[in-house]
Structures are given as C-alpha cells and as structure tokens.
C-alpha cells in the first residue's frame, strides 16, 4: 500500500488515512515509507487542509485498533505538530509515576489510547485521553514531574482544539470532565466518604450513569497506560462502584431546594461511609 493509493482524496487526508492503516498493520512500517510520508508533510500536504476536514479521517484512526500507534507515527513524521501542536508538545515532558519515578507524557497518551482500543471505548473517551493533559506542556520546570495549575492552562486549549477540529460536543464535554476529575478519581480513598459522594455526583453516577461509565473508562485507561499496569483492573473502580451501590434508593426529590440537596448529600455520605467501613473490615 502507498500514499498514491489514496489519490482520490485530498492529499493531506489521504496521508492521514495511510498512517491510520499503517498503524493497523502487523509489524513496524518500512522506514523508507515513513521517510516518504515525512517528506510529504515537509512539502506542506497538511498545511492547506481545513482543520474541520481533518476530523473525519483523524477520528477514524482514533477509533481503530491501534490509535496510540497511529499517534506515534504521526509524531514521527511531523504531522502531529501540524494537526495537534498542543499534543505534540507533550512528547518529552515528564509525568510523575511510581516505577519508574516519571514517564514521558507523549508515550503515556499513546499507551492510554491503545488501552482504550482494547476495551472498545467510544470516541469521546479516546478524545478525552488524547487531550486531557495538554495543559502540562509548559508546566514550570522547577516543579516537574508535577504539573501545578495545568487545569487552568488545559481547559482553554481543549476548547480551542475541539472548536478547530469541529469535534462533537460529547467529546469536548468528556475531555473537560477528564481534565477536572480524572486525577481526583485516582486519589479517592475509603477514608473520606464525603468527597467520594461529591465526586460521584459531579460525574453523573446518580443521574447520568452512561456518562459516568464512560468517564470511568477514561480513568481506567489512564491508569493502565502506566508501566506495569497494562490490562490490570483499575483499583478505584470497585471502591467507587461500592459507593454508588450504597446510595441506591437515595433519590433526589423533584425541584429540590438547597436544604433538600444538602440533606441528600449528607445521607449519601453516611451510606457511603457505612459501606466503605464494611469494605475495610472485610
């Protein structure tokens, strides 16, 4: 297969599809082929491609069986910097981890996307994994591998990416949700029932279960992207599920006032504390 096979498409779009198909193939592509693609990027094949026209081809690759590998090839040939400079800038940026103490954010995103493909995650989850860390590219060097205030930097960048590519509204919404909440989910503990109840509420566990389940996919794939975690159970999933199950039957009244909402939150906190205490004693 070669780039010319897609001559019926806009040259830049044909190139994107070619990279996506390379990622789906067995084994590594021929280095000469990658160099040819890089030459075409240097020649400006993508520069006159309307960003909104890029999305259908790019999202096709995101939904493929190896989206992380596609992203890797796009970065290698210089295309990622033209399509998503905010994501390209994450390559070489350290992210705090356990063993080893830090990992490359670019490689982490690639691994997270491939984990998403393994569980057939929807497009919104894959987009969220792709862009949720874009606020970390210019974190103060003295604090690395921690990323202080990346949420404030990341939110406008995510909005800009979604607008530029004309990404669907659910992709934009989940990316912003993951930016705000994913790291909080990773830090949740059995010892703090109140924050667990609020995290569940904010993320739709009680009133938008499908949105919550997709959010949990993002958290799980983010966790599995780290070295040694591939394919592992997400350790916070069982805790959050137990907390959610403990609140079954505690319903929000129609048109609740603030006092009714506070009473509901308190009841949920008590129920979760009781459930998580039982989990600790098992």
Automatic annotation (TrEMBL):
SUPFAM superfamilies: Poly A polymerase C-terminal region-like (SSF81891). Transmembrane segments: none annotated. It comes from the Bacteria. Signal peptide: none annotated. The keyword Glycosyltransferase does not apply. Keywords: Nucleotide-binding, Transferase. GO terms for molecular function: nucleotide binding; transferase activity. This is tRNA nucleotidyltransferase. It comes from Rhodoblastus sphagnicola.
């Amino acid at each position: 297969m070669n780039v010319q096979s897609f001559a019926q498409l806009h040259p830049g779009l044909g190139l994107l599809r070619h990279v996506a198909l390379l990622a789906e193939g067995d084994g590594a592509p021929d280095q000469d082929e990658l160099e040819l693609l890089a030459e075409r990027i240097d020649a400006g094949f993508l520069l006159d491609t309307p960003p909104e026209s890029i999305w259908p081809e790019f999202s096709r690759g995101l939904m493929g069986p190896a989206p992380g590998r596609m992203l890797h090839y796009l970065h290698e040939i210089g295309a990622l910097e033209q399509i998503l400079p905010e994501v390209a800038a994450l390559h070489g940026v350290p992210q705090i981890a356990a063993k080893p103490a830090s990992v490359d954010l670019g490689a982490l995103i690639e691994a997270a996307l491939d984990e998403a493909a393994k569980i057939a995650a929807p497009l919104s989850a894959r987009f969220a994994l792709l862009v949720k860390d874009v606020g970390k590219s210019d974190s103060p060097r003295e604090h690395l591998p921690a990323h202080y205030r990346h949420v404030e930097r990341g939110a406008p960048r995510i909005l800009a990416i979604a607008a530029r590519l004309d990404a669907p509204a659910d992709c934009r919404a989940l990316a912003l949700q993951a930016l705000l909440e994913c790291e909080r989910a990773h830090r949740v503990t059995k010892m703090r029932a109140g924050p667990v109840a609020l995290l569940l509420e904010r993320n739709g566990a009680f009133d938008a279960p499908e949105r919550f389940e997709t959010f949990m996919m993002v958290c799980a794939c983010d966790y599995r992207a780290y070295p040694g975690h591939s394919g592992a159970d997400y350790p916070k999933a069982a805790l959050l599920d137990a907390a959610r199950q403990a609140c079954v039957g505690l319903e929000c009244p129609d048109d609740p006032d603030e006092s009714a909402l506070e009473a509901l939150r308190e009841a949920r906190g008590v129920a979760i504390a009781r459930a998580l205490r039982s989990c600790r004693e098992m």
